[in-house]
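Subgroup meeting minutes
Present: P.N., E.W., G.H.
Scribe: E.W.

1. P.N. recapped why we're keeping a running log of single-chain structure predictions: easier to compare across weeks, and new members can see raw inputs and outputs side by side.
2. G.H. added today's entry (187 aa).
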Amino acid sequence: MSAKVSVDLAKISRTMDDLVSLAIEEVSTTLVDIADDAEANAEAKWYTQVRKKTGKTGQLRTRLRHAGANTLEAIVESANEPDKTTYMVHRPGPLSMRRKKVTASEYAEIMSFFRENGRLPEGVHARAVAKDGQPMALVRDIRNPLASDGKNLWSELGRKEGKKIILARVDDMDAAMQRAADRLRQR
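Output recorded in log:
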């Protein structure tokens, strides 16, 4: 008398192929989801870091691609990819200044100073001068409220903060693999 144990290798091969297919599908979805979070974060902060809002930059998109035979990537990139203007936007530097129109009360004080001294106070400029020599359209130099490190906006919001988001969601990849196994079990 003998006991026989057998395994259908073709069935194991098909099951493993199904598991790999489901895992790739779940991991792809998770990669895009994580990249979408990085994209949303960058887009939300984009125009809080720069003043000029042309709409030509700050628009991003997520794309899933195969990088070689064994690598799957979700990439956040400029929505207007051919000209790459998104990558070239810089935040204002730490010494960045702006000019602000003076208020009515400031104008009165500045003009009193001008009449007494024959010149404008330090940090105040006239955009125009009347025929009689009186300064008009006065502006004051102020520190730029968006002054920062002057670094490239894409590097800071896309890459640096994107890496933080990816690291925070690394456990989602494990959950994707588990979902694939659960889906296979339900078949």
